Amino acid sequence: MLRLRLNSELGMTMLIAVIVTFLGTVLAGSYLSMVNYESRHSVWQKHRAQSLFLAEAGIEKGLYYLNNPDNQPSYWTLDMDGQLVTPLFAEGSLAGGTYDIVLYDQSQAPWLPANAYLIASTGTIPRISEEDIEHKVSCVAHKLDKLPIPGALSILDDADPEIELDKFQSAVWTIDGQDMDAPGGLPGIAVANENPGGDDIDEQLGNRIDQVTGSDEGGGSYQGTDAILRDSSLPKNLDAYANYFKRIALDISSPDGNKYTIPTSVLGTDDNYQVLYANLSQGDLKVAGTETGCGILVLEGNGEFEMAGGSEWNGLIICASDSIIRLKGGGGTPSHIYGALLVANGIVEMNGTADIVYSSERTDKAFDLLLYQVYSWCGGWGETLDMQLYTTM
To answer: Has this prediction a pTM greater than 0.90?
Structure first.
């Protein structure tokens, strides 16, 4: 009886052991299968991300080619007007993958804006014995047109100019729209709006108004009231250009909230114009002594920008908000702006031997800093672009 019971228990133990072993084997197999799947899926996701980054690298390479004509592929050709003949193809490799680029213009995509290109890029990760992983990205790239410059000093907002001009007291400051580089030129001051019921520019400048001179395309020279343009249709969208340049600018806003002198190392040179941006709400900004800046300076925020002593700026200064622009040469040493000063909602002060002189050469050189940038993304990410779907921009 005891022997039968022991045999029964041994059989039951063996059965339980077999069942446990079987379940363990099944679970282990399932676990290993899950680990293998997760591993393969993780690799796929990694390659998928890499293909996206490669496609984006292709977009950046296309922008680089557009912005650096001297470094474009030798097989890219130009038409009689110096424009690229599209479609254009390029390829490259990076980090174990490749990217292929195609550029189109209005010839292939009539819905494109003027002076714009469609860049289509495909990033590819090759895989052994498996289908390659691809990612497609497309965008429209273009650069802004040159900003129209109405005058050597342009006040482009809807405020009464008596608010914009302040402390024009000295007898030695000048604003001159005559082009220092070529015949012709612009008005000395251009105003987008004057308050019919308030002081106008003439009354604001008083007996200093003859210190404003200008010219027209024919080379005629004008002084005083005749050198001031009043035109309500003048462009007022300085924000668009300020935001555009901010994307490529070096931020020189005050690091500690105090008045900050722009370092000489970033002021640019005649051979290397710079794009600088400052938020004056973080602290006032200054160009002092005999320092010379070259390029585009974008100012925003409620604060002050000052040019003192024999300082100089060549190119464009764009004041896009409630800033104060203060020019104050002294001791017989003038501070200069050679190019143009464009103001929206700011206040301009001129004291001492300061001057603003229009220069087409310097403003054109500043506008050469306009770059092709991504204007909009097209199509679904990872999908082939159907150009027929995009009929308007």
So the answer is: no
